[in-house]
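Lecture notes, part 5. Sequence design as translation. It can be helpful to think of inverse folding as translation between two languages: the language of shapes and the language of residues. The source text, in structure tokens, appears below.
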């Protein structure tokens, strides 16, 4: 049986400063459908290893090859360039995956959590070819609304600008060390309502030409892939209204979709405290079944 420890790693892209890597789980001699996973972390944290182990196990047990990618992180690399990394990784999986790990390029879905959930929805209109299905977990669907541009205390004490700036630099980074304090930069920018200014590099109040292509809710059409949205009902970091509004847009466009809200769940519901909650288990079952019907 394939396990979450059965992993192969490849470099899918080289920049002037770093190599961007992709982990592949579940590959064997049989050609299989695949799930392209994008990690979260507020656009400035995390790495390809940040995939929920129970979710990964469920995907592998269903017979999917799972690929999990790194991308360059903000604020050193801004969101529009991160999207370029994602598109390049997608092209690499389609072109090299069949040869290297027997993935079926015609049966590929995209999934992600938090910022990765946002990017999984961006994939619905930016990836070429479009994925056959999307599973977006606790995803933001616009990144210029009041929910993310007004101050949010993050449930922690104030973080000074000096503390925040000390945790980031100018060199490209895709996989922060375990002892990194970069989360302080996230706290500071959210507490001061400057999160998207720093992540995107432009003011969301004025740079509409930059933000509109980055907001999935404004880019839904009849060709958008079938989508399942999973969200915590008590999510304060990314309000559940983000998922509800996206579901309305998908419905207006006639796109096949499901919305599953986990009652009382916070933003990170694949963590130790929630991972075995019955409603979270049900959300994983529904997600895997949704993907199985479309690419399995």
């Amino acid at each position: 049986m394939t396990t979450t420890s059965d992993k192969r790693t490849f470099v899918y892209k080289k920049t002037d400063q770093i190599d961007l890597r992709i982990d592949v789980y579940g590959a064997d001699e049989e050609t299989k459908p695949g799930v392209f996973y994008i990690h979260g972390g507020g656009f400035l944290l995390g790495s390809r290893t940040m995939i929920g182990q129970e979710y990964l196990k469920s995907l592998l047990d269903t017979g999917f090859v799972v690929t999990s990618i790194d991308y360059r992180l903000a604020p050193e690399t801004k969101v529009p360039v991160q999207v370029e990394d994602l598109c390049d990784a997608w092209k690499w999986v389609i072109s090299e995956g069949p040869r290297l790990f027997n993935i079926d390029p015609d049966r590929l879905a995209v999934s992600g959590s938090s910022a990765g959930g946002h990017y999984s929805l961006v994939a619905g209109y930016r990836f070429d070819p479009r994925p056959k299905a999307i599973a977006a977990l606790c995803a933001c669907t616009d990144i210029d609304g009041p929910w993310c541009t007004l101050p949010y205390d993050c449930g922690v004490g104030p973080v000074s600008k000096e503390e925040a700036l000390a945790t980031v630099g100018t060199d490209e980074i895709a996989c922060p060390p375990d002892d990194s304090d970069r989360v302080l930069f996230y706290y500071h920018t959210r507490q001061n309502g400057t999160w998207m200014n720093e992540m995107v590099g432009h003011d969301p109040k004025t740079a509409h030409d930059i933000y509109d292509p980055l907001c999935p809710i404004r880019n839904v059409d009849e060709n958008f892939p079938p989508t399942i949205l999973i969200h915590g009902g008590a999510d304060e970091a990314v309000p559940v209204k983000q998922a509800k509004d996206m579901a309305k847009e998908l419905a207006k466009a006639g796109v096949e979709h499901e919305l599953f809200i986990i009652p009382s769940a916070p933003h990170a519901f694949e963590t130790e405290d929630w991972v075995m909650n019955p409603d979270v288990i049900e959300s994983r079952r529904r997600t895997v079944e949704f993907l199985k019907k479309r690419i399995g």
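The translated text above is only one of many valid answers, since several sequences can fold into similar shapes. The mean pLDDT is 96.
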